[in-house]
From TrEMBL:
GO terms for cellular component: cytoplasm. This is Citrate synthase. Signal peptide: none annotated. Belongs to the citrate synthase family. PROSITE patterns: CITRATE_SYNTHASE (PS00480). SUPFAM superfamilies: Citrate synthase. NCBIfam families: cit_synth_I (TIGR01798), PRK05614.1 (NF004126).
């Protein structure tokens, strides 16, 4: 090896790039997109505004935002040939697997990879990705349910369209619920970017070979699917439901999570960067209470979540390791209240994270980052005759 290689499994102590997009302070529990605090954005912005801010660096004026929303509408019609890919999946296919495959397939409709230097080309690619990904994401659910596929309604907003695309059936027009739309818009904002997490680093890594934007995002979808990452929101609900079905014995599951012999981890707890409360978890916990109160829903699962959180925050094992609830701990409770099925939870995370993936991919290409290619410490066999 020329020069020393520092071994850093999971890149816990490595910086892979410089970036102007998102700032995290794990000790203080700070999250900012382009300098704006997450609490401020969750309160005062909408998801497309935040998407524009992340991708292009500045808050859009009302006119620019309206144009952005209209330009996305130009690309919400998905090529009918894509349906044959959807039909090719078994009914039991997981929505994230379908989403990764179909997103990658979109590359074939855009053979010319994006010319990042060409502002117009890049802007169109952004609108195309924001438009088509949303529709395809809902098609995974429609397929699972055996429902006819829906199309984007250009007279409605982005987040409202998500709910229509998901739930409108010919015999029952979707009844808009403002509380639902606002809660979802906030959830998408909270998921929009998070610096160099596993899936975003994957999007950068794949994009560093100059693979296309859709192909890079497809790789990000696959990385997000893992239960240690975005798949945790589904795993949290399954864990809470299991605790509920086993008589609500949270102490038993806390003990399991601490048992080194037992691979079980408390899903929705802990974080690589936050050694304090995940600021998003605080906002989502409050939103969960509001949504359930508006719906007049007493969800026993929420009670279990609160009980588990209180017990873990008091527990020496968790405290000594700075393990707090993360973004995934409460989000599933809101999705469930909105009627979204558990195996669509990580698709929700992907829809929220899409603008962050696009922003990071664009920055990586604009900065002409080299192709990602780490080294290793070889520990295998020395030379031997075959
Ligand atoms: C997301 O990176 C991002 O920004 C991700 C994300 C984003 O927005 O992109 O924030 C989204 O992925 C949130 C995390 C969702 N995942 C989960 O909730 C799954 C459960 N959490 C853990 O698997 C874990 O906390 C991770 C994966 C989130 C972080 O793992 P690390 O940083 O590699 O920490 P570690 O595995 O080295 O754990 C340190 C110690 C270990 O104990 P010791 O070996 O020191 O005795 O803490 C323990 C771990 O066993 N530990 C847990 C635990 N998380 C860590 N023990 C029980 N339950 C847990 N959840």
């Amino acid at each position: 090896l020329t020069g020393l290689v520092t071994l850093d499994p999971g890149y816990k102590n490595s910086g892979s790039c410089t970036s102007e997009i998102t700032f995290l302070d794990g000790e203080l529990g700070i999250l900012r997109y382009r300098g704006y605090g997450i609490e401020d954005l969750a309160e005062n912005a909408n998801f497309l505004e935040v998407s524009y801010l992340l991708i292009f660096g500045e808050k859009p004026t009302a006119e620019v935002l309206e144009k952005f929303e209209n330009d996305i509408r130009k690309y919400t019609l998905v090529n009918e040939e894509m349906k044959s890919i959807l039909d090719g999946f078994p009914k039991t296919a997981h929505p994230m697997g379908i989403l990764a495959a179909m997103t990658s397939a979109l590359t074939s409709f855009n053979p010319k990879s994006v010319d990042v230097e060409n502002e117009k080309d890049m802007y169109c690619a952004v609108c195309k990705t924001m438009g088509k990904f949303l529709v395809i994401a809902t098609w995974t659910f429609r397929k699972n349910m055996g429902y006819p596929l829906n199309y984007y309604d250009n007279t409605k907003g982005y987040v409202e369209n998500f709910m229509r695309l998901m739930f409108e059936i010919p015999t029952e027009p979707y009844k808009v619920n403002k509380t639902f739309i606002e809660a979802l818009d906030k959830l998408f904002i909270l998921h929009a970017d998070h610096e160099q997490n596993c899936s975003t680093s994957t999007v950068r890594m794949v994009g560093s070979s100059h693979a296309g934007l859709f192909a890079s995002i497809s790789a990000g979808v696959s990385a997000l699917w893992g239960p240690l990452h975005g798949g945790a929101n589904q795993a949290v609900l399954e864990m809470l439901e299991e605790i509920h079905n086993n008589g609500g014995d949270t102490e038993k599951y806390l003990a399991k999570a601490k048992d080194k012999e037992d691979p079980f981890r408390l899903m929705g707890f802990g974080h690589r960067v936050y050694k304090n409360f995940d600021p998003r978890a605080k906002i989502i916990k409050k939103a969960a209470n509001e949504v359930l109160a508006t719906l007049g829903v007493e969800d026993p699962i929420l009670d279990i979540a609160r009980k588990l959180e209180a017990a873990a925050l008091e527990d020496e094992y968790f405290k000594s390791r700075n393990l707090y609830p993360n973004v995934d701990f409460y989000s599933g409770i809101i999705y469930r209240a909105l009627g979204i099925p558990t195996d669509m939870f990580t698709v929700m995370f992907a829809i929220g994270r899409l603008p962050g993936w696009i922003a990071q991919w664009k920055e990586m290409r604009e900065n002409k980052e080299p192709i990602g290619r780490p080294r290793q410490i070889y520990t295998g066999a020395t030379l031997r005759e075959f």
